[in-house]
Amino acid sequence: MDKIEQAYQEALKVLRGCASPLGLKASALGSGYPQVWARDAPITALGALMTGDEELIQAVRVSLETLGANQSELGMVPLNVDTRTGEVTTENAGAIDANMWFVLGHFAYHQTTGDTAFLRSAWPGLQAALTWLRYQDMNGCGLLEAPEAADWADLYSTRYNTLYANALYVGTLDAAAQLSAALGQDGSDHRNRAQDVRRKINLLLWLDRPWDGHEFGRQLEELKAMRLEWFLLYQNTAALTEKPHYLSWAGFREFGHTFDGFGNMLAILFGVASAGQTASILDYAHAAGTDAPAPLKAFFPPMYPGDRDWRDYYRSRNLNLPDQYHNGGIWPFLGGFYVLALHQAGMSARAEEALHALAQANEKGRTRPWEFNEWLHGRSGRPMGHPLQAWSAGMYVCAYQAVRFQKTPALPLSQTFRDG
Fold first, then answer.
1. pLDDT of residue 131
2. How far apart are CA 49 and CA 112, in angstroms?
C-alpha cells in the first residue's frame, strides 16, 4: 500500500473517531476540541459524505441538527456546541463564517442524500442564517464586512471586506440558489447576488496595474462610480503595485498585503477567479513556498513585531508567532483545498505531488504516527497543534478522491472559469 492509500485508510479511522451523539467533533481526541463546530463539521462533512459510510453520513446530519437547534433568534449559527455538556460557546461568538458553512453543510448533505424532506424542515433556519448574513453588509456595498478575528482565522488581523468571507459568501449564495430550486422556489435572487459579489471582489481585491495604466484607470473609475470610499483607497495609495493574488482584505484607506491561502483557494473553487487569475495564484503559491514543506500555509509571508498589522495578541498561548498558527503556519485541511484547486485548474501532476506531500504531513505526530494534526510549523513542518483533527482527515479524503478518482466534494464548485 503506497503512502497516499495508507493516508486515506488512516483518515477514515480519524473520521469515525470524531462521530458523537451530537455530531462530528472537531477532534477524535477527548481533550482537543470536543465540540461540534459550525465551520469544522461542515468542512469535515465534505469528506465524510464521500466515504459512503452510513454512520458518518448520519453524523453529518446530526451535526447540522445540533447547530440548527442552537441558532439564535436573529439567525446567527453558534460557533460551536460542546458534545459533553450541550453548551454553546461565547468565545469568538458571532463568527461570520459559521452561518455560511452551515448553509454549505446542508447543501453538501442534500446533494449527497437527496433528502428533500430534511432540507424542507431545515429551510426556515437556513433562510434566517442567510438573512443574518445580509445584515453583515452593514453599509449596503454588496460585500460582507467583518471585524478583526471574526472568522476561522480567529487570532489574525484581517478585517472589514475580507477575501475569505466574501469568496465563501459567493459559494454560500450559489448553494442557496440551488437549494431553493430543490424546494421548487425561485433562487435567482441568491444567484444574482453571488454574481454581484464576484464582480466586486475582483474590483476591490484584485489589483491590476499594468505598465500603461489604462486598465487600472478603468478600475479606478468603476470603483469611484460604485463606491467613493473604494476609489479613495487606491487613489491615495501610489506605492501599491500589482499582485499575483487577491488582497486578503480592504478597509478604510488600507488593505492586507499577505497571501490568504484559504481565501484564494475558495476564489478559485467558487469561480471568482478567471483562468488567468487562477494560474497566477497557483504559480505564486508554489513559487513562494506556501505549499512547502507541506500544503498549505494560512497566510504568507508571516508578520513580525513592528509590522503594521502585527498584534500583541499574536503572543496569546504562544500561538501566532512568525511561522506558527495563522501567521505562516501550515494547516493540512487547507492543503486539501489546495489540491482541489490544482485539480480544478487541470494541474494534475502538481495535484498528485501536493497530495503526496499532504499524506506525509498527516503521517507526522508528536506521540504517534498518523496524527492528522491541526497545524504544523511553517518552516520545520513539525506538528504543533492538536492531533486527530476531523477537518484534516475530511479534507484529505476530498483531495484523495479528486486526484485518484476524479470525484469532487458536494460544493457548488465552478464548472468553468470566469471570463477575463
1. 98
2. 7
